[in-house]
Amino acid sequence: MLIFQIYFIMKKNKLFCALFVIASMLIFNSCNTDVNIYNEGEETTVVYGYLDVDADTNYLKITKSFVGDVIENGQNYNMSNYDYKLNVKLIGKFADMPNVVSVVTMDTCHVHKPYDPNAIFYSGVDQVLYYTTRKLIEDQTYKLVIERNDGEVITSEVKTINGSTITQPYLNISFESQATNQIKWRSNELMERAAFYEVVGYFHYSQLNPGETDTVDYCVKWTFGSGTGDELWNGSEYRMFVNYTPKNFYKQLQADDNLTNNSPEWVQRFVKGFEIVVTATGEELYKYILIQNSMGAIQDTPEYTNIENGIGILSSRSQCRKMFEVHDRSVSALIRDYPQWGFVKIYE
């Protein structure tokens, strides 16, 4: 799913606004990730998105810039969105026909933005995304072509990232040790590395409240680490890795709002597993954010965009997910050391 955000900047006493999207798992948690794109003068097409070889559906957000008063015009959806369907094509090789270059016309779908009475910008409307369900191929170049009704053509090219395979842990994961451990993964193309990686864990459990018959699923997020492919590379093993301390798992749980503040007497919770997600991002977006973070205060139009005859970023992403069983020792520790959380064992 995509989360939509609007950023704006004052320049020469006029407000130049552009609507764009940021993926919800945008991976640079430790730095400023505001992607501000704007342009002075005539209407400019704004493109933001990434191509993900692991996704069943790939989405792009395509809008337009506008000049004017943000308070007056921000609530007007039409100011930053086209009132017609653009002709959007994605050209490249797809998994169902890997030996043939295909031209795919991207269709549109609508994502509802709930109404917010306090929002400066429009809400309570359906926003348009362009999408394709054709499966992409790793390490392939794709060309995006956008044709407007006025004859303007906007283009971009991006190469997809190779997928990853998690190699450690193996079958299960334990959280009893104070010693440093590692999460390891490798690129599906052995020597290849993406521009940037982030590794996140999700502890999944279900909860049965007193007097109820249906469980509710919850998860606790644990960010293990991030860095460039070169920083995380272990040349002797041809893998990448991040270090973590297993025992810190319990600190993550202690900081969780649901466990801490929603544990009534007789609540029952059941461990479902621990999911590890390795997200790789492409050079285009990583380079753009490095430029943005190097600018203490944005004064001029951003120096980097890979959209020809438009502005914005088209990049690539790959995401590897794997669910692990939580070792019985760790489940027993949850039950023994944190009885207030109500974890119980499931016997099959």
Q: Could you provide a short overview of the structure?
A:
This protein has 348 residues and is mainly beta.
Task: Lay out the secondary structure.
Layout: E1 2-11, E2 14-23, E3 45-52, E4 58-64, E5 66-67, H1 70-73, E6 87-94, E7 97-105, E8 107-113, E9 125-132, E10 141-147, E11 153-159, E12 164-168, E13 172-173, E14 181-187, E15 196-208, E16 216-228, E17 233-234, E18 239-244, H2 249-254, H3 257-261, E19 268-281, H4 283-294, E20 311-326, H5 328-337
Parallel strand pairs: 3-20, 13-20
Antiparallel strand pairs: 1-2, 2-5, 3-4, 4-9, 6-7, 6-10, 8-9, 10-11, 12-14, 14-18, 15-16, 15-19, 17-18, 19-20
Structural account:
This protein is mainly beta and about 350 residues long. The protein has helices at about 70-75, 250-255, 255-260, 285-295, 330-335, and strands at about 1-10, 15-25, 45-50, 60-65, 65, 85-95, 95-105, 105-115, 125-130, 140-145, 155-160, 165-170, 170-175, 180-185, 195-210, 215-230, 235, 240-245, 270-280, 310-325. The strands form four sheets. Strands 3, 4, 8, 9, 13, 15, 16, 19 and 20 form a nine-stranded mixed β-sheet that branches. Strands 7-6-10-11 form a four-stranded antiparallel β-sheet, with no helix packed on it. Strand 1 and strand 2 form a beta hairpin. The two termini are about 35 Å apart. Mean pLDDT is about 85; it is low at about 1-40.
Distance between the termini: 35 Å
Largest sheet: 9 strands, mixed
Instruction: Report the helical percentage.
Output: 10-25%
> What share of the residues does DSSP label as strand, in percent?
over 45%
Uncertain spans, ≥5 residues at pLDDT below 50?
1-40
**Whole-number mean pLDDT:** 84
What is the approximate shape? Answer: globular
Tally of individual domains: 2
Helix tally equals 5
Total E-strand runs? 20
